[in-house]
Predict the structure of Enoyl-CoA hydratase.
Amino acid sequence: MYSQVTVARAGKSERIAVVTLNRPDKLNALTKVMEAELRDAMEAVDRDDNVRVVVLTGAGKGFCAGMDINELEVLPPGDIRAAQWMRPFDMNRRADYQTRYGYFPAMRKPVIAAINGAAAGLGLVFALYCDMRFAGANAAFSSAFARRGLIAEHGISWLLPRVVGPGHAADLLYSARKVLADEALRIGLVDRVVDADALMATTLDYADDLAENVSPRSIRVMKRQLWEQPFQSLAEATRLANAEMFESIQSEDFTEGVAHFIERRPARFSGR
């Protein structure tokens, strides 16, 4: 179906969708074709109720080396609100996620980046738009922009300080230096580091636990809560949480959550 992206099912019940950037000879450098295919693939797996977790990774020895230098484009200032980036089925209440890569946080499912090598420029942007980042010990990160005469694009100046703090964000953006996996873990850029050979197995084990044992309805609501939180006051976040808790208690997943705990059996969550 795609020429530069692949989609495969994984996990005990094939409830994990593994989306792979597939230009290994170019370290998965982004092209216009790959960008369009990635968006289509991510939105397709988000619509699929049989998919509960999405893993994003790269083929070969790299995650994504950034934009293909032969396809660099000059984005007009109005691009952020261009019609092609709007989502008719947006699952997130905020207009802030109606942007070029805002479909990542607007997805209903958790997205885990399995970073198997270089993540530079747009590769770093994609990783930051994911909910979690697992890295192989061979992973390396760089914003790259300052060394190309560019700026912090696609909202990375908003995302990066919220992940690593303002000081580390300034360092990584200003210097555009290479950050290896151990430092990335220390500053919070990634959530865990494992041997390169164990990266996909570790990521899929974690994703499988989410897919099999956790309410997809709960994750759907909590993901929205986490991504909306930076725009809210404590009072607003609390009021919305109380309303969501009321709805949760009426849900099928709450009934099943109590039942499987009392009956000491595996959960059978419906997502409703």
In short: The chain has two domains: 5-210, 232-263. The first strand starts at residue 5 and ends at 10. The chain has a mean pLDDT of 91.
